[in-house]
C-alpha cells in the first residue's frame, strides 16, 4: 500500500500524538520535569508534548526500535532514507 500509493514519505515518527493524533511540539526538559519518572529525568533530555491532550513524549528505546524497523523496510523496498520532521 505504502509503495503503490507513494505514501512512504508520509510516515514521520515523532510528529503526531499516539493518543489523539495532535501535533507534537518540542519542549524544554524544565517544562515537563515535574511529570517525569526518576529514571526518565536522569537519562533523557529532549522532549515533546501534545498541545491537544498534554501527553509527554521522549526518544526512549521504543523510538530507536521503530527507527530500525522503518529503515529496514525502506531498504527492502529500495526507498530513500527520510529523517523525522521534528527532533525531540
Highlighted features:
alpha+beta; three-stranded antiparallel sheet; 3 helices; 3 strands; 31% helix
Structure in words:
- The chain is α+β, with helices and mostly antiparallel strands and 88 residues long.
- It has one domain (8-77).
- It has helices at residues 29-32, 38-43, 61-77, and strands at residues 24-27, 47-50, 56-58.
- A 3-stranded antiparallel beta sheet has the order 1-2-3.
- A hairpin with a 5-residue loop joins β2 and β3 (56-58).
Determine the structural class based on helices, strands and strand pairing: alpha+beta
Radius of gyration using CA atoms only: 15 Å
Domain module count:
1
| Mean residue pLDDT | 81
Measured by DSSP, the beta-strand proportion falls in 5-15%
Helical amount among residues, as a percent range? 25-40%
Termini distance? 28 Å
- How many helix segments? 3
**How is the main sheet built?**
3 strands, antiparallel
Let me know the number of strands: 3
Strand order of the largest sheet: 1-2-3
Q: Which ranges are low-confidence, i.e. pLDDT below 50, for 5 or more consecutive residues?
A: 83-88
Summary?
The protein is of the alpha+beta class.
Amino acid at each position: 500500500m505504502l509503495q503503490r500509493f507513494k505514501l512512504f514519505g508520509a510516515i514521520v515518527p515523532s510528529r503526531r500524538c499516539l493518543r489523539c493524533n495532535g501535533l507534537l511540539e518540542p519542549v524544554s526538559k524544565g517544562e515537563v520535569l515535574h511529570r517525569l519518572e526518576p529514571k526518565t529525568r536522569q537519562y533523557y533530555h529532549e522532549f515533546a508534548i501534545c498541545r491537544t491532550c498534554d501527553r509527554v513524549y521522549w526518544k526512549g528505546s521504543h523510538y530507536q526500535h521503530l527507527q530500525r524497523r522503518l529503515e529496514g523496510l525502506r531498504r527492502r523496498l529500495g526507498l530513500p532514507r527520510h529523517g523525522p520532521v521534528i527532533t525531540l
